[in-house]
């Protein structure tokens, strides 16, 4: 009985102490405390929304990385963007880079300076060169020759599949632009035809890549990548939501045809 009385007195004492503390706090102090809490929550929500938008528009890196097969036009594109001229180029075995100043069509303060990296397309060096720059990729531009896709479709599809399946690229949520180059030539295929052809090749590659992805998941030194597409459905690039893919037609030798690409770079930079 004594212990119950002591517990009751203790609860009454705590309640009295709480009421005494509240009495000492003025209404102004309560008002300012409420404002402070509201501001803190507002800033937290703004931070989370901003982070989500940044992750959905562009990757975490600083560079626009150009990839693709040999003679697709990567080096020509690099210097057309950064220097306003299209030089005569040869197959490169080393990476090139330069700074590109974006336009300001998105607003007065939207102009930015972004690094553009040209990854060599030769099969002997392109894998290591891409691994060197992929962690710093803000976005990726995949160039292909629209006039020779028929003979190179398997190689082009495999290289693009490798890029989109890369765990670092997926983790950084890099947007990808597939640039169908050399549209000024008569034999060039349209972006729509190229997209459909690549989607069919991706269906084949998804089947053959299952064992490779399984082996990666058992390797503690490498993070497994997410499978491309939706299981049980034909592949479509619209299914790659973590690396949104945009197809464009262009001719690097005609600067005006790069308008869509420049706007895309400005949006993701």
Automatic annotation (TrEMBL):
Entries under SUPFAM superfamilies matching the protein: P-loop containing nucleoside triphosphate hydrolases
Record's bilayer topology term: Single-pass membrane protein
Coiled-coil blocks: none
Localisation per UniProt entry: Endoplasmic reticulum membrane
BP term (GO), one: protein localization to Golgi apparatus
CDD domains: SR_beta (cd04105)
Bilayer-spanning residue ranges: 30-50
Lineage: superkingdom: Eukaryota
Listed GO MF terms: GTP binding; GTPase activity
Major location category of this protein: endoplasmic reticulum
Keywords carried by this UniProt record: Endoplasmic reticulum, GTP-binding, Membrane, Nucleotide-binding, Receptor, Transmembrane, Transmembrane helix
Gene3D superfamilies, A to Z: P-loop containing nucleotide triphosphate hydrolases
One Pfam entry name: SRPRB
GO CC, alphabetical: endoplasmic reticulum membrane; Golgi apparatus
Family statement: Belongs to the SRP receptor beta subunit family.
Protein name: Signal recognition particle receptor subunit beta
């Amino acid at each position: 009985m004594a212990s119950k009385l002591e517990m009751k007195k203790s609860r009454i004492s705590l309640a009295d102490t709480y009421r005494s503390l509240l009495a000492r706090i003025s209404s102004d102090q309560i008002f300012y405390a409420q404002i402070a809490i509201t501001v803190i929550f507002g800033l937290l929500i703004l931070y989370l929304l901003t982070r989500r938008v940044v992750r959905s528009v562009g990757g975490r890196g600083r560079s626009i990385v150009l990839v693709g097969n040999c003679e697709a036009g990567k080096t020509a594109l690099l210097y057309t963007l950064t220097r306003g001229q299209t030089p005569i180029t040869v197959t490169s075995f080393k990476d090139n880079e330069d700074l590109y100043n974006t336009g300001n069509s998105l607003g007065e303060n939207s102009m930015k300076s972004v690094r553009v990296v040209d990854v060599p397309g030769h099969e002997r060096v392109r894998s290591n060169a891409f691994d060197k720059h992929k962690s710093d990729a803000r976005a990726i531009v995949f160039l292909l020759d629209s006039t020779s896709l028929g003979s190179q479709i398997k190689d082009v599809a495999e290289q693009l599949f490798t890029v989109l399946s890369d765990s670092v690229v997926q983790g950084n949520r890099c947007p990808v632009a597939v640039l169908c180059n050399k549209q000024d030539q008569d034999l060039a295929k349209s972006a729509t035809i190229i997209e459909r052809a690549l989607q069919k090749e991706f269906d084949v590659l998804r089947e053959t890549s299952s064992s490779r992805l399984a082996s990666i998941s058992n390797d503690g030194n490498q993070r497994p990548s997410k499978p491309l597409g939706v299981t049980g459905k034909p592949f479509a690039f619209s299914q790659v939501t973590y690396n949104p893919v945009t197809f464009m037609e262009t001719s690097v030798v005609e600067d005006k045809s790069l308008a869509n690409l420049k706007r895309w770079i400005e949006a993701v930079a």
